[in-house]
Amino acid sequence: MGASNEIAREKRMEMRLSKLAIFLVSLLLLSCVNSNPMFEQNHSIANERWDKNELVRMDVPVTDTLGFYDIFINVRNVNSYPYSNLFLFVSVNAPNGATVTDTVEYNLADEYGKWLGESASRMWSCKLPFRTMVRFAQAGTYTFSIQQGMRDDELEGISDVGLYVEPITDQPSR
To answer: Of 77, 105, 110, 139, which is the most buried if we count CB atoms within 10 A?
Structure first.
């Protein structure tokens, strides 16, 4: 009986050490995630109905012209959003007046109709990549304008749209 108690005690100790190792590895991985954006701002869409002429504008102050950044568009949709995708017109106006406009398409649901992103009740949040490895050419305020590009005059089911800009921690050689 004594040997069996000793084996059970060793197994409990191994289990505790395994749990501690998993906890420490998880903590290490979480500390590697950059959760400190340079800029984040979200705008609510009134009554979850986005008019085709409504521009969502955000002014992003930039002081660092040497670092690289990833830029994301935040979108929140509700379960009643009638499509699996979303077209957006995104314009970026630089401090010198230069403007670049892009049309982008994002999938908000997979091919089976399952919503992508994180869920909170009837709401789904997606952080969608817009540009990666961006280096801002000059300091100043960059104005981002986002407009829905679907064929609907009034797009139902989008509750919020925003912008998330984060510095890349592993910078390439300059």
So the answer is: 77
